[in-house]
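Hey, I was hoping to borrow your eyes for a little while. I've been staring at a protein lately and its backbone has me curious. You're getting the sequence in one-letter code plus the fold written as tokens. Would you mind checking whether the tokens look sensible for this chain? Here's the protein in full, and shout if anything looks odd to you:
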Amino acid sequence: MKSIVINYLIIGFFLVAGCSSKDKSSSEEVKTLNVKEIKLNSGNYNAIEESSEVLWECEWLGGARHDGSVQLVSGSIDISETSDLNGRFIVDLNSMRCFDLKNEGTNKKLIGHLKSDDFFDVANYPEAVLDLISGKNISGNEFEFSGNLTIKGQTHPITFTGTVKENNLSYDANLKLIFDRSKYDVRYRSASLFSDLGNRIIADDVQLTVKAKFKKVSKI
């Protein structure tokens, strides 16, 4: 009797293991099938400014951080028949906002400092420009882009990634960029220049998230 019970237990184990393996395999297969590679359709696309935003974030080495937004004033992408692309994004630095500081006076002081020549010298350089020169699909709806970023009259190459979703005759793009501010002569309390400021040093890397909606330009 004991032997029969053991045999049943062994058979049951293999049945469960077989089902689990099958379910896992099926799940992975479904997951793979759900990843649809996007092929960009040729044409000219303009950003819908009121439906787009550019978010920024920077950190102090001591752990503090600030975040906010700037306004995208124009954006366009041209896609060729072979899916090659180029484009341009222009951001108004005078529109800079801070989200994390709730005190109006402190918030205004920070924005004023960021606009000063200690940082972005907005009076002389009111715009930042991102020129796209290439983009390629790397997986599903994920793309890798290359371009040139211009801030304070300084231009440097930049590579970044993002996702693109197709929606009828439009695209929704969510791009993630990180740039080294010290390369653009934004060096106030920069780690590349100072080593004796302790936790008052501001990290050189600035993170940007660009969420943009692009609509195809109709041919007349």
About this structure: The chain has a mean pLDDT of 80.
